[in-house]
Amino acid sequence: MFSITRRAVAKIALSGAIALTAASSAIPAFAADKITVGALRFTSHSPSFVAFERGYFKDQGLDVEFKFFQAAQPMAVAIASGDVDYGVTAISGALINLANKGAIKIIGGALQEEPGIDGQIILVSKQAYDDGVTSPAELKGRSFGITQAGSSFHYMAHKIAQKEGFDGSEIKTIPLQKVGAIIGALKSGQVDSWTIVPHIAKALSKGPAVEQIGMVADYIPDYQVTTVFTSTENAENRQDLTKRFLKAFSMGAADFNAALVDKTAGDQAAEDMVVLIHKYVYASKPYEKAAPSIRNGAMRINKDAALNVTNVKDQLAWFQSEGLVSKDITIETLVNTDYVDTF
């Protein structure tokens, strides 16, 4: 028989703890996957900002860096080149052509027009308005600002013309490359008209140089304004990474919708959401001036990144009818439906 003193027990325990600590420190921690996310400084891109700020990307093992753009087509090129891993923006001719080359895939939906929620607004310069362009029917023969040929602005202009009964070619589309350049041209009367998301449109129409004449939703019901897309490599061979990105993005979208679209989360949640978004949208403006515009830009982001394939098919058909993309491209070439619900 022998006895162990309390001091001996303490020494044994201490030496065991030290050994355990040393062993655990020798186990390498798994590093987060670094990804670059493309975005525009629009309220409609808020799900990505929310997912970043609230740690949803981090919770999914993603170390996110943002890269900001001023138009859709350069982002598509950046996805194809590998400079950006995931992006959210409108469908463009460049995006479709890159998909046809096997470089990128649409994997989900984001911003969508919805009845009862303010969406994209049709604007005209005060000069054009005073000259009789007081409704979209008078856009025939008038100029319309777009970023590039084959952009979403180009698509919207032609769909407006189609419903008003005249050919899209009878609207003079003026490529100005950047949203900021279109704003300047519209305010100065260098272009007659434009369409844009509400956080920009409402601010412009409150000034003396721009008038509102209609809503895009009246011309393109259920328009899938923006989509989530990535490289074909990510979509087909990095499925776990892509699922984690979409999960975090969808969580950000749910918070955004609850706070500013459905307004079910309460006043404080809405205020907190606007404060968060202000870090990225109108960040150079004082909060008091930026907040109303951010609230005005709250359009529906599809739950769980569901994708309106019906409208995407319509967009593809329009690009093909204009000769902007090959007539041989199928919806399967453009969209990978493995990740989200489609309708």
TrEMBL record:
The keyword Cell wall biogenesis/degradation does not apply. Residues 43-255 form the SsuA/THI5-like domain. Pfam families: NMT1 (PF09084). Its main location: periplasm. It is found in: Periplasm. Residues 1-31 form the signal peptide. Keywords: Signal. PROSITE patterns: TAT. The keyword Cell membrane does not apply. Transmembrane segments: none annotated. InterPro entries: SsuA/THI5 (IPR015168), TAT_signal (IPR006311). Belongs to the bacterial solute-binding protein SsuA/TauA family. This is ABC transporter substrate-binding protein.
